[in-house]
Amino acid sequence: MRNFADRLNDAILAKNSQVCVGLDPRLDHMPESLIGRYRDQPRQGCGCGRHEIGACFYEFGAAIIDAVASHAVAVKMQLACFEQYGPPGFKAFKHLCDHAAKQGLLVIADAKRGDIGLSAAAYSAAYIGRPDGFDGKIDNLGADALTVNPLFGTDAMQPFIDDCAQYGAGIFVLVKTSNPGSADLQDLIVAGEKSPSVISGSSSPTAGSAASNTRKFHEKVASLVDSWGENLIGETGYSSIGAVIGGTHPETLASLRKLLPRTPFLIPGYGTQGAVAADMSAAFDKRGLGALVTASRSIIYAGAGENFAASAAEAAAAMRDELWQSSLGNV
Amino acid sequence: MRNFADRLNDAILAKNSQVCVGLDPRLDHMPESLIGRYRDQPRQGCGCGRHEIGACFYEFGAAIIDAVASHAVAVKMQLACFEQYGPPGFKAFKHLCDHAAKQGLLVIADAKRGDIGLSAAAYSAAYIGRPDGFDGKIDNLGADALTVNPLFGTDAMQPFIDDCAQYGAGIFVLVKTSNPGSADLQDLIVAGEKSPSVISGSSSPTAGSAASNTRKFHEKVASLVDSWGENLIGETGYSSIGAVIGGTHPETLASLRKLLPRTPFLIPGYGTQGAVAADMSAAFDKRGLGALVTASRSIIYAGAGENFAASAAEAAAAMRDELWQSSLGNV
Fold first, then answer.
1. A173-218, pLDDT tens digit by residue?
2. Interface residue of A27, A35, A78, A188 to substitute, partner B, most B CBs within 10 Å
3. A contact residues 20-49, partner B, Cβ 8 Å cutoff
4. CA separation for the pair B61, B95 (Å, rounded)
5. What's the CA gap between B272 and B293, in Å, rounded?
6. Mutating which of A130, A179, A187 best tests the B interface, going by the most B Cβ atoms within 10 A?
7. Residues of B with CB below 8 A from A190's CB?
8. pLDDT average, residue stretch A295-315
9. Within a domain: residue A200?
């Protein structure tokens, strides 16, 4: 299987698009035309509606996928939305992964998983590796890439990195998230770590220990991400080990791009969370490569009525055009 | 519903036990007497064996639960093991949660989840809150407590904390994990943060900025955990917001206990990972309260043959006695 970063970049160039549509289905946002049919049918199992909600999410998601497939490069499936409905939710998730792949979209499982040892290996197997079956390895849940939480350190990342190498998969490691509270831990100043400017040699010769004390926690994570990805650089110059960096912090995005020249960024925050295309421009190289920008609510809930899918297509196309022009304006 | 910490402490005192059995089912560790039956039966679905593996994990897990129920206080269900088998894996997880509850055990979903905003709320709803159904809230997957990753910061923790308050649930926040690589990020020195000894007033008056620069990242997380839990202290003196702290770092455990006097600890590392009861003694108060110690492989795979459940019961009973005596010796 071709390196994930190359597959991603092939798709970006084929579609002139850096759009990733976030599939975050929520019951209170389902179009009435859709939800009514599922709510009012006889209920399977315990009668709580889990099965029907899963089926409703599948129909909604499949319609969105069909509508945005020519405008977007990837879908980002928010596991939390599916997981809360248990096995039927997971079934909808898996079937939507399969459907997106059939429509030529890359699938990013936005699961933000992380653990240690054999548990880390099991999470990796679930989404991008291959779980053990009775007679050898079996298929995973059908993602091309997975979002991963780095808190556990290098040994806990190894199973994910190994599966990326073996199966042409990718991961996006959380470096700086888009929420206000991300500052609480991710922006802590880490003592004794050199700042990025010191690393790049641009600090003044008079800068002493004070300057070397200005590196933030998320910059330390970034330097680890760079090292984790160094053996997985594809032909297009990017690694299969990517980074999640919130678009709501444009200056951070620009400084992290300098620190991570070979890392694909997955950038949430566009649309409902307030970031615009210009905020992302530093993330792209002159080919328009380097980042996927995700939008969820502003695309999938662009229209509330029967024409929700057509509205989503329109919103995705507009986002594609805005991002593509903005990224090339960066040349 | 009674406060989670009080429910936990009631159970510890009723059973004279601080044992939490980790249910981490792995296909290559299933007893041959069990696996043969599932491997050789006609396969549902795509034929990959997912359904039969889920059913095998359920039978295995239920037998372990029945065997350890009188010796252990809780089971810790490792989501990764179940999740890799998709919907049938999740079904086994849910049914085992229900079975453990029927046997009087507290259920800790070891999912290490974390996200922001509505996604954080959905993860919380999945395990300890209540997801939205067609006609109001519906049942969750059946956990009493959930392990949570704190990297996202305070705003992202709020949905979990709110559900703990509303539903008498608990969370255990990752503070210091048991793997060697935990040092990579969790032990970073955080500049400008006061060290625990400074906080407790035990530092010498001559200690200057050098001393105040010696706080580690995981100690900063600990201070947040303390603040997150301050409104959820139960009658027994502990909060429903707990902490995961690896038993493989005895000195860290002791120093974190000083920093977190009201926080229940969930301590992995006993048994296969090398920690012994004496390593945990600082975690307990003189009543024997304050911590649950988890063991997975050393209990559930204590015997490989047909008598695996009896072997697990024996191992759990021995662990209970060792821990209980050791913790009371700490008076």
1. 999 999 999 999 999 999 876 555 444 444 343 333 444 557 999 9
2. A188
3. 24, 26-28, 35, 38-39, 46, 48-49
4. 10
5. 13
6. A179
7. 188-191, 217
8. 95
9. no
Structural Rg of chain B based on CA atoms: 20
Classify the phi-psi angles of A321: left when phi > 0, otherwise alpha if psi is within -120 to 50, otherwise beta.
Answer: alpha
DSSP secondary-structure letter at A65?
Answer: H
- Name which of A152, A218, A223 to mutate to probe chain B: the one with the most chain B Cβ atoms within 10 A of its Cβ: A152
Min Cα–Cα distance to chain A from B261, Å: 22
Give me the residue label for tokens 């936990």.
B8
Residues 6+ apart with CB under 8 A from A180: B153, B155
Question: What local confidence, expressed as pLDDT, does residue B194 receive?
Answer: 58
B234: left (phi over 0), alpha (psi -120 to 50) or beta: beta
The CA radius of gyration of chain A, in Å to the nearest whole number, is: 20
Predicted-complex ipTM score: 0.94
Which candidate from A35, A116, A190 shows the least CB-CB separation from B177?
Answer: A116
CB B36 within 8 A of CB B308: no
Distance CA B245, CA B247 (A): 6
CA-angle at B44, arms to A38 and A49, nearest 5°: 20
Report yes or no on A198 lying in a domain. Answer: no
Chain B residues with CB under 8 Å of A115 CB are 78, 80, 112
Across the interface, which of A117, A141, A193 has its CB nearest the CB of B179?
A117
List, in order, residues 6 or more apart from A124 with CB less than 8 Å away: A146, A159, A160, A162, A163
pLDDT digits (tens, 9 = 90+) for A259-286: 999 999 999 988 877 888 988 999 999 9
Q: How far apart are CA A62 and CA A76, in angstroms?
A: 13
Phi, psi of B154 (to 5 degrees): -60, -45
Q: Which two tokens stand for residue B265?
A: 């600890």
Inside any domain, residue A123? yes
The CATH number covering residue A243 comes to 3.20.20.70
Chain-chain contact of A150 with B185 (C-beta, under 8 angstroms): yes
Which whole number is the average pLDDT over A69-78?
98
A113–B112 CB contact, under 8 Å: yes
Interior angle at CA A112, CA A107 and CA A115, nearest 5: 125
Within a domain: B271: yes
Residue A239's beta-bridge partner residues? A233
Residues 149-208 of B with CB under 8 A from A: 149-157, 174, 177-186, 188-193
- In the numeric block, which tokens belong to residue B291? 């911590």
Averaged pLDDT of chain B: 92
CA neighbours within 13 Å on the CB side: how many for B203? 18
Average pLDDT over residues A242-266: 95
**Active-site option among B76, B94, B112, B176:** B112
Which residue do the tokens 């992290």 mark?
A: A256
Residue A112 appears among annotated catalytic residues: yes
How many other β-carbons are positioned within 10 Å of the β-carbon of residue A113? 28
* Domain hosting residue B162, numbered range: 4-180+238-328
How many structural domains compose chain A? Answer: 1
Tokens for A50, please give them.
């889990």
Instruction: Give Cβ neighbours of residue B206 (< 8 Å, ≥ 6 apart).
Output: none
Distance from CA of A45 to the nearest CA of B (A): 12
